[in-house]
Amino acid sequence: MSFKTDIEIAREAKKKPIMEIGEKLGIPAADLLPYGHDKAKVSQDFITSLADRPDGKLILVTAINPTPAGEGKTTTTVGLGDGLNRIGKKAVICIREASLGPNFGMKGGAAGGGYAQVVPMEEMNLHFTGDFHAITSAHNLLSAMIDNHIYWGNSLEIDQRRVVWRRVMDMNDRALRDVVSSLGGVANGFPRQTGFDITVASEVMAILCLSKDLEDLQKRLGDIVVAYTRDRTPIYCRDIKADGAMTVLLKDAMQPNLVQTLENNPAFVHGGPFANIAHGCNSVIATKTALKLGDYVVTEAGFGADLGAEKFFDIKCRKAGLKPAASVLVATVRAMKMNGGVAKADLGAENVAAVKKGCPNLGRHISNVKSFGVPVVVAINHFHSDTDAEIEAVKAYVAEQGAEAIVCKHWAHGSAGIEELAHKVVSMAESGTSNFSPIYPDEMSLFEKIETVAKRIYHADEVIADKSIRAQLKAWEEAGYGHFPVCMAKTQYSFSTDPNLRGAPTGHSVPVREVRLSAGAGFIVVICGEIMTMPGLPRAPAAETIRINESGFVEGLF
Amino acid sequence: MSFKTDIEIAREAKKKPIMEIGEKLGIPAADLLPYGHDKAKVSQDFITSLADRPDGKLILVTAINPTPAGEGKTTTTVGLGDGLNRIGKKAVICIREASLGPNFGMKGGAAGGGYAQVVPMEEMNLHFTGDFHAITSAHNLLSAMIDNHIYWGNSLEIDQRRVVWRRVMDMNDRALRDVVSSLGGVANGFPRQTGFDITVASEVMAILCLSKDLEDLQKRLGDIVVAYTRDRTPIYCRDIKADGAMTVLLKDAMQPNLVQTLENNPAFVHGGPFANIAHGCNSVIATKTALKLGDYVVTEAGFGADLGAEKFFDIKCRKAGLKPAASVLVATVRAMKMNGGVAKADLGAENVAAVKKGCPNLGRHISNVKSFGVPVVVAINHFHSDTDAEIEAVKAYVAEQGAEAIVCKHWAHGSAGIEELAHKVVSMAESGTSNFSPIYPDEMSLFEKIETVAKRIYHADEVIADKSIRAQLKAWEEAGYGHFPVCMAKTQYSFSTDPNLRGAPTGHSVPVREVRLSAGAGFIVVICGEIMTMPGLPRAPAAETIRINESGFVEGLF
């Protein structure tokens, strides 16, 4: 069999003018700020005018732990959005923006795949509407103002060894991870060791994605802790007086981006924080706007449900007051096989035993999602190599867990392949059975919050943390940050902190290596393992073959 | 008297939808890529389709040496464009884009002033259509790929001490001028000393502004010399295989931006290279597109005519095959007085003697511009404090030089205040007297080119250069760069290299401190004095007061 690639399908898309897509949602032309003919931002004024409308129903798409086999979480998010529209529901999709830098290392990707994609793919992998560039500028303006403050006399008495605000660039550039700046003499300032992270790792990104409006944005930016004095007094962004100018730099970036699926249904693509040191969800403002405009909003969370859904529930929904009505857990037969011990090269052969052996990974995610009070259905994202016996094995297992698994063929057939799931999601959401609440209350101590996630979601026996880490958590509680949720940064490949431990491990420990305060975003980052915040390029980066070909198409990016 | 500020006037502008402005120029809606409702890019396809049309007439607006009194070169460029439209000519304005970073140091500025402005002012001082961000990304992708090449085995044998390609950021950040990168151990590469320039100083900016299409752009990017081996063999961007991906990053940025004046006339605002280490003109592609669409194109060059017009003629026109039909030299009575020795505080009082004493600065610029074969008229940009006697003194002086000086009141009255100049420009252009040629031929040796500019334009006695600099120029000639023009980098405040030497000095020397090869842009930079390529922020940066106010307007940026 030969299939068209995602980019071939995307290039054949019969896109409608973005003004028409907006019109379907009832957005007046004057409130849609076009970027070319296929992308637009929705004006803040229009968003403000929606405040009194009722909300649609929010559907979360999450997944099992990712494996090299691929799960198709975004593909299913897009497919379900198209499927809901197909069965007569007004549905809006909300997903994240892609980071530019990594596309020049490994090939960039579609938003979705097959016949369940969001377009324009090329722009979404390049500059798109400039949001990430605005975040880079806002972040680095603060950095420049900190060093400038020190240069001109340091009246805030910043301890130059305790500047915690680094710089960012949307590029995979390992040479910038660790630098000494301000060399070259008096005119260039005071030399100190610092470094760059990739833009998606910026706290400004997390803040933009959690802010409800420009006022909230500026307040949160002001709350960022940028440095400490010698006696450990925090210095805030507000003390540096950068919050106003940063807000000005971000005012357009705060407005959600509207694009469309291959089937001309509306999709908001907005924000893209790291899913480890941040919460990994699209922006609150896009989700809330979509809820005012659609009967259904389909969104996704980063990585597997242990990281992504947990943060979606405990950080995004908690902070934004969102109440998900139902959730979809994406799994594939192939991924079950890998969880059952099959190597990637052997995935083509039928192996029902391995599927059965891998299913407990899925089972644990089902019960985890249920523990937040949200009803869940499993979407089996269909691959051509799946056999009937393998599919039946997954279905039977899921039924034993008190849930249902539905085979979805949106990749091959678009919305026509996912009608059954769409109907199921509607019936779950309409049933009113969702009774969402975060897994821990605000008042719980920070360390107990970490333990709660580790034990109830990861099924670990214990959390291991040095005295200094526990003391730091205590200190933040005393400083008034005790009500913050915790943002867990661990490997996405396992429930444990060992990426090779597939399935549903028990008896493991969660070692906390470091904790960081994101005072503007409003969470405590808990780092369990090595977390890379500035990627490098591979030996033969994709950039080497990216070019505009004779037909004027971009080649090598996908 | 009380006047409205530029921003007050700009905010009262009755902007037309940008699609309407494009329509007036005959650009089909599908070929205008909107960015909001008041900015658009013109598609490359449309530009390509114009190839066989005849060109309109090109008018250069240049000025005397800048003084703290202000000359109003951009204001006059915009005013003249409006004036030509007023008298029934189809005129298009071409100016440069503003750099984002410096606006957070000192207050940003209008494009023009008073009733001769281009809008939207706010966006043009912020992210605009993202061109500079694209340039930053393309530049830094190459930087990352160079260090990545070294990291993965350095098969090109780059001498790490001889990497000449730095990084860029569109921010005033002195801490980045001089850094050591790749610290932190094996995983982060090989430590080396490097630094950041501001984006407008990037050779990528100069290249984008001189390229005629995407193919030419990629060829020029490939030509950039990024490093040398131990035996001084140059390593090109093409060797690093970054040219294709950089072109992809720049494909939208290459398309000119269309905006409008307060009088709803079309203006292309595109590109903005440094006017010292680069040529300081808007893009060739914008100018050429405008020439296909308008009967008249009014454009400007950076700084005074000694730097700006010289580079416009010797670099931009030479390379792009442009033939200016006439030029306008902007002067003010106030600036003449400062050239005549009056301090800024005393500019309010009539002082005919000082005006007369300062006029030789203007006189020399007149004869310099004429020496390129281009007819010239002087525009006296009128200030309310100018007295009749002072104006008459300037007019009389200019008449003695065989030229005409016309008082222009576009700042206060828009196009109605500049009709006389518009008629004069038309009669000069229609007369066919322009007989443009660059001041030196391609074949002249590089050092003789420097001498030609120094002697014929700056009226210096001699050029002083170390043996090592002369040897470097010779080496470049042998390497095949001898046909390049020279790009002089010296103070803009004087014909000499001493910024305090006003008027029309003679008998001075031009010391060449350093020469640099811009192999992609296609010129040799000749540095005469201190040139700063990464500005710093002042003690109280404008950013501290920039914010969105209660009415939703940006405050403090202007």
Q: What this model shows, in words?
A:
Chains A, B: Its EC number is 6.3.4.3. Chains A, B: Pathway: One-carbon metabolism; tetrahydrofolate interconversion. The structure is a homodimer of 558-residue chains. The first copy, chain A, folds into three domains: 17-129 and 253-431, P-loop containing nucleotide triphosphate hydrolases (Rossmann fold), CATH 3.40.50.300; 131-250, Domain 2, N(10)-formyltetrahydrofolate synthetase; 446-528, Formyltetrahydrofolate synthetase, domain 3. Chain A is globular and about 70 Å long. The first copy, chain A, has 19 helices and 26 strands. Helices cover 35% and strands 20% of the residues of chain A. Chain A is an alpha/beta fold and 558 residues long. Chains A and B meet through helix 6, strand 9, helix 10 and strand 25 of A and helix 6, strand 9, helix 10 and strand 25 of B.
CATH class of the largest domain in chain A: Alpha Beta
On the 0 to 100 scale, the average pLDDT of chain A is 96
Tell me what portion of residues of chain A adopts beta-strand conformation: 15-25%
Distance between the termini of chain A: 21 Å
Poorly predicted regions of chain A are none
Envelope shape of chain A: globular
| Number of discrete domains of chain A | 3
Q: For the report, how would you describe the main beta sheet of chain A? A: 12 strands, mixed
Backbone CA Rg of chain A: 23 Å
CATH-assigned fold name of the largest domain in chain A: Rossmann fold
Strand segment count of chain A: 26
Count of alpha/pi helices of chain A = 19
Fraction in helix of chain A: 25-40%
Structural class of chain A comes to alpha/beta
Look at the structure and name the CATH superfamily of the largest domain in chain A: P-loop containing nucleotide triphosphate hydrolases
Largest interface: A-B, 71 and 72 residues
CATH architecture heading of the largest domain in chain A? 3-Layer(aba) Sandwich
